[in-house]
Specification:
With 200 residues, the chain is mostly helical. Helices cover 74% and strands 0% of the residues. It has helices at residues 7-30, 33-40, 44-50, 54-77, 83-94, 108-116, 121-147, 157-178, 181-196. It is elongated, with a radius of gyration of 19 Å. InterPro entries: Homeodomain-like_sf, HTH_TetR, Tet_transcr_reg_TetR-rel_C_sf, TetR_C.
Length: 200
């Protein structure tokens, strides 16, 4: 049943998957229609027959790449029991940023947010939604940890969640700019300290 996609749906998915690394590496502005047609082997007419424009392809690609990262986090989280260990998954998964585990081009949130901040409102909104959704998941895990007696009461969930997101994304930006996994590892140690300090 799950493979019963229409031909159009299969073509759309093929275009998204095939161009996911290109958009995530070159960005929206840097990816041309010829990049898309060359990668997919499809004509420009076929691309436009499945997507309204290049921006729609880019939005779907962002969702696809972000979904891959989210799924990697979920799979690892499902294997651990404590809320401390669940939060630590973020540091563990993002530690793989430069080790070939992430979508080609790196973190789709960081890449999209940096490129689209002043140039593309729809992509900026998509990146903002991803950041706020991530923050909410962290807040929920902290609250669940407090209720389970694992974390201290009276924690500022908003501040901690934003700090974790900022440290991870900032660490990725520094690692990418300096071509140094060691710099990311150093920042992620701070994330681990921050999470451990919440424990009762």
């Amino acid at each position: 049943m799950e493979n019963q996609l229409s031909k159009a749906e299969r073509t759309r998915q093929f275009i998204i998957e095939t161009t996911s690394g290109i958009f995530n590496t070159k960005g929206y502005a840097g990816t041309s229609m010829s990049d898309i047609t060359e990668a997919t082997g499809l004509t420009k007419g076929s691309i436009y027959g499945n997507f309204e424009n290049k921006e729609e392809v880019a939005l779907c690609v962002f969702d696809y790449n972000h979904g891959k990262v989210s799924e990697a986090i979920k799979q690892r989280m499902d294997k651990v029991k404590t809320y401390h260990d669940k939060l630590m998954v973020y540091a563990q998964v993002y530690d793989q940023y430069m080790r070939g585990v992430f979508p080609k081009g790196g973190c789709p949130i960081l890449n999209t947010a940096i490129e689209a901040d002043d140039t593309n409102g729809l992509l900026k909104a998509r990146a903002a939604k991803a950041v706020l959704g991530w923050k909410k998941k962290i807040e929920d895990l902290i609250q669940a940890g407090v209720e389970a007696g694992e974390f201290k009461a009276g924690l500022d969930h908003n501040q901690i969640a934003l700090s974790i997101v900022a440290l991870i994304e900032g660490g990725i930006m520094i690692a990418k700019t300096t071509d140094s996994q060691a710099n990311l590892d150093t920042v992620l140690k701070t994330v681990e300290v921050l999470i451990s300090q919440m424990k009762v």
